[in-house]
Design a protein that fits this description.
Length: about 425
């Protein structure tokens, strides 16, 4: 971890006649923090912060977000620039290693991705045991933890395996597992990875080739997929990354930790929102007759549990920079592919209504990444219940980078929040 922490002096906390002194510091982008590690020891008090709205759990070199302005950078590079100029595998390398790969590093990383892309043949049979309607996020999570059973050396931290093997194995095999899960769900034979295809092209080929078609990867679709996966690749201490790190902090292996992260991402308030956005738009057409006003009123009604999916974010209090790229891309890809989807028009109408409404403005609620990504996945032929799987494939390098940083953090300890107990005081069964 780079040493960019600046000492800003101290803050005082006074309670019950006693004052304690707490160190204050700032990071490389001037975010300030009070170091409260001594709080409980010195005062007997803990902090109370449900949802970790104000809790910094680590110092990190990986991703920077300014939610007020709408900035997202991986290792210092702006998300727009990365999406415009890089392939997903280069961004994966960047997140894991801290710098973009040179030509030789790119070649080696790609070769590792290629050589690790097969699943053990025994794993292929795991897919048969799931019902056809199994959600692919459940299957993917099960496959991630299953993968760890084939590599028992993961459990032995004394074995210094080349980190790129661990990383590319996971990136590559999870992509294969995702495509196999899809093929199983539609009753088609699986398509094995192909050594001549790059990372995204290989995935598309495994998804869409069949014995009775001559599927050729459309370069527009492959480029779009690269960009989408880059947009998903990391988002600092979000829910799933925190889960990955929490599980890892107990000493669980990387693949088991990521299996847990996949489950967290599946939730509709997190990555699962991309599936729910499309389902919401479809319902607006079928059940609300395309009446956006009615939907907006429902979202604002505190007696109605309905929320606009793809809107709002814990950190962004301005337009999500990923959503900006995703919106531009969505229009571009659909135009290039000649796809005319009525849901796109509806999404735009809904967005305009959100931006014009004081309820959303006063709460700083804007479209987030999930608002437009699903529409592009849909145009690419990816089925709705695979959208969050796409997010998971994209987020894989971020989870890995966060897990590795957690493992190597000299201040790292098992994650173990405290609580304020509010149940009955001691009582007796007699
Ligand atoms: N529709 C209607 N009202 C909303 C919405 C929404 N989508 N999101 C937040 N609000 C309201 C909420 O009711 C609350 O109002 P009030 O102050 O009157 O009680 C206020 O805005 C603050 O909301 P919150 O739930 O306290 O905010 P949070 O930071 O805890 O939640 C969120 C963030 C993303 C879970 C939430 O905005 C949400 O549920 N959005 C819809 C789901 C979604 O799109 N999730 C994807 C997030 S981006 C991708 C990712 O990171 O995984």
């Amino acid at each position: 971890m780079s040493d960019t922490i600046k000492d800003l002096g101290t803050a005082e906390l006074t309670f019950d006649g006693k004052t304690i002194i707490l160190p204050v510091f700032e990071g490389s982008e001037k975010e300030k923090a009070v170091d409260i590690r001594a709080l409980r020891k010195e005062t007997g008090m803990i902090t109370y912060d449900p949802g970790f709205m104000n809790t910094g759990c680590c110092k990190s070199d990986i991703t920077y977000i300014d939610g007020e302005v709408g900035i997202l950078r991986y290792r210092g590079y702006d998300i727009n620039e990365l999406a415009e100029n890089c392939e997903f595998v280069d961004v994966a390398y960047l997140l894991v290693h801290g710098s973009l790969p040179n030509k030789q590093q790119h070649t080696e990383f790609s070769e590792n991705l290629n050589s690790h892309s097969l699943l053990h043949e025994d794993m292929r049979h795991f897919f048969d045991a799931y019902p056809d309607h199994a959600h692919p996020m459940a299957t993917l999570s099960a496959m991630a933890v299953s993968l760890s059973t084939f590599y028992p050396e993961l459990e032995d931290s004394s074995i210094q395996e080349n980190i790129d093997f661990k990383v590319t194995r996971l990136l590559s095999k999870m992509r294969t597992a995702a495509a196999f899960a899809y093929k199983k769900s539609i009753g088609h034979p699986i398509v094995y990875p192909h050594h001549n295809l790059k990372y995204c092209e290989n995935f598309l080929n495994m998804m869409f080739r069949t014995p009775v078609n001559d599927y050729q990867v459309d370069p527009v679709v492959a480029t779009a997929l690269n960009k989408l996966l880059i947009l998903h690749a990391d988002h600092e201490q979000n829910c799933s990354a925190s889960v990955v790190k929490m599980v890892g902090s107990a000493g669980a292996n990387l693949y088991a930790s990521i299996s847990a992260g996949i489950c967290a991402l599946w939730g509709p308030l997190h990555g699962g929102a991309n599936q729910h956005v499309i389902e919401m738009l479809e319902r607006i057409i079928v059940e609300d007759d395309g009446d956006v006003k009615r939907v907006i009123e429902r979202a604002k009604d505190k007696n109605d549990p309905f929320r606009l999916m793809g809107v709002g974010h814990r950190v962004y209090k301005s337009y999500d920079p990923r959503a900006k790229v995703a919106k531009r891309m969505c229009k571009d890809v659909l135009a290039k592919m000649g796809v005319d989807d009525p849901l796109v028009e509806l999404a735009q109408e809904l967005e305009e209504a959100v931006l014009a409404d004081d309820y959303f403005a006063s709460r700083s609620l804007y479209p987030n990444i999930d608002f437009y990504t699903g529409l592009t996945y849909r145009a690419m032929g990816i089925p709705t219940d695979m959208f969050t799987v796409m997010f998971a494939i994209g987020r894989m390098p971020g989870w890995i980078a966060q897990w590795l940083e957690m493992r190597d953090d000299p201040h790292g300890r098992i994650g173990r929040p405290r609580q304020i107990y509010t149940g009955p005081t001691q009582r007796s069964v007699n």
